[in-house]
């Protein structure tokens, strides 16, 4: 019997780069795990995309900002204001490089007075790989990246869950409710006549924990794969094709081929491309080059939903 996994999804709100186009919104994503929503980056138009994709404003627990280039954070002031107008009361936690703290305070003071909810700022050290958020379901840790300004990605790791006790075994052995959690934790069952029923016969194994890594703007880092080793789904910026590798080096970005190298070396399950340069009419060349190195590669597009599954 296969146990049902709780939803772990990534919704793409925007996957373009700095120069506006009619094809893409700037960077923003929403990660859903066990009915909790987390936003990564918040470019212009993010709140419009939330409306378009029918994502409830009030369900977003935290926003993780990778760096302070406008295409990753200009949407935040408008979104905060809208959250206030829609009656939000729950605190909103914002994780971002330390330099964003004073800017956020000014924004709240000038444009967002009387919000009705608390905005809690958490300064992030982009140079360290460190857990910055934790709850009962998951941890979020920083991934140091190399861009023109301080920048980091974020790695979402689901926490392991207990196995599921089989309903037929509960009925057959008349297992009391008080003992169910003990059996999930590893205990055997002893019948009234003293027979021991091994724990392994009573349960179905828990689904393996899943993980999602978001690697925002960065030049190719040869050792990056070590921090995302074995990740189930990797999003890695792929601003340019290999023909524009010199431009990628100049602006501290990556090509889709380089993104695929990171995914291959990390033994990732799936690669998502994004942060496309406005110079391309479409992204098929980016996809083609990445798949030559890492076949299980996909283009992120606005409105797409990717399930994070531990299929390996």
UniProtKB/TrEMBL annotation:
GO terms for molecular function: 3'-tRNA processing endoribonuclease activity; zinc ion binding. The active site is at residue 71. Keywords: Endonuclease, Hydrolase, Metal-binding, Nuclease, tRNA processing, Zinc. InterPro entries: RibonucZ/Hydroxyglut_hydro, RNase_Z/BN. The keyword Oxidoreductase does not apply. CDD domains: RNaseZ_ZiPD-like_MBL-fold. Gene3D superfamilies: Ribonuclease Z/Hydroxyacylglutathione hydrolase-like. Its EC number is 3.1.26.11. It comes from the Bacteria. Zn(2+) 1 binds at residues 67, 69, 147, 217. Binds 2 Zn(2+) ions. Zn(2+) 2 binds at residues 71-72, 217, 275. It catalyses: Endonucleolytic cleavage of RNA, removing extra 3' nucleotides from tRNA precursor, generating 3' termini of tRNAs. A 3'-hydroxy group is left at the tRNA terminus and a 5'-phosphoryl group is left at the trailer molecule. Its cofactor is Zn(2+). The keyword Metal-binding applies. Belongs to the RNase Z family. Zinc phosphodiesterase, which displays some tRNA 3'-processing endonuclease activity. Probably involved in tRNA maturation, by removing a 3'-trailer from precursor tRNA. Homodimer. NCBIfam families: PRK00055.1-3, RNase_Z. PANTHER family: ZINC PHOSPHODIESTERASE ELAC PROTEIN 1. This is Ribonuclease Z. It comes from Prevotella denticola CRIS 18C-A. The lineage of its organism: Bacteria, Pseudomonadati, Bacteroidota, Bacteroidia, Bacteroidales.
């Amino acid at each position: 019997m296969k146990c049902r996994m709780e939803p772990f999804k990534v919704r793409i709100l925007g996957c373009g780069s700095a120069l506006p186009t009619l094809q893409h919104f700037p960077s923003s994503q929403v990660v859903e795990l066990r009915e909790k929503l987390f936003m990564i980056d918040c470019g212009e138009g993010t709140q419009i995309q939330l409306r378009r994709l029918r994502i409830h404003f009030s369900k977003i627990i935290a926003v993780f900002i990778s760096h302070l280039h406008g295409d990753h954070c200009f949407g935040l002031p408008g979104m905060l204001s809208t959250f206030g107008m829609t009656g939000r009361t729950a605190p909103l936690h914002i994780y971002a490089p330390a330099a964003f703290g004073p800017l956020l305070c000014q924004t709240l003071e000038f444009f967002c007075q009387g919000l009705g909810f608390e905005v809690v700022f958490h300064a992030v050290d982009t140079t360290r790989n460190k857990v910055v958020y934790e709850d009962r379901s998951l941890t979020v840790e920083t991934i140091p990246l190399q861009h023109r300004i301080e920048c980091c990605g974020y790695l979402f790791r689901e926490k392991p869950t207990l196995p599921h006790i089989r309903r037929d075994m509960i009925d057959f052995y008349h297992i009391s409710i008080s003992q169910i959690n003990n059996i999930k934790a590893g205990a055997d069952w002893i019948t009234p006549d003293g027979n021991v029923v091994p724990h392994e016969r009573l349960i179905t194994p828990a689904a393996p924990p899943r993980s999602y890594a978001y690697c925002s703007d960065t030049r190719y880092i040869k050792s990056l794969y070590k921090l995302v080793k074995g990740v189930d789904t990797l999003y890695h910026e792929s601003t340019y094709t290999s023909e524009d590798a010199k431009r990628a080096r100049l602006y501290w970005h990556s090509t889709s081929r380089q993104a695929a190298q990171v995914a291959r070396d990390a033994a990732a399950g799936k690669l998502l491309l994004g942060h496309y340069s406005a110079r391309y009419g479409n992204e098929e060349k980016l996809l083609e080059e990445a798949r030559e190195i890492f076949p299980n590669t996909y283009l992120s597009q606005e409105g797409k939903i990717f399930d994070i599954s531990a299929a390996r």
